[in-house]
């Protein structure tokens, strides 16, 4: 049986991952010009690291 401490740790990790994913998608979902958005190399670099 999983104790409450382990369950809370798991939920904390899941919440942290979801928070980071939400922040990244929110940033790229804005309708504002981004630096180097017309550069193919910058687009590929961002795609590889995120």
UniProtKB/TrEMBL annotation:
UniProt KW Cell division keyword: no
Keywords in alphabetical order: Membrane, Transmembrane, Transmembrane helix
Location within or outside the cell: Membrane
Pfam families hit by this protein: CorA
InterPro entries: CorA_TM1_TM2, MgTranspt_CorA/ZnTranspt_ZntB
Coiled-coil regions listed in the entry: none
Topology in the lipid bilayer: Multi-pass membrane protein
Principal location: membrane
Record-annotated membrane-spanning stretches: 9-30
Name listed for the protein in its UniProt record: CorA family divalent cation transporter
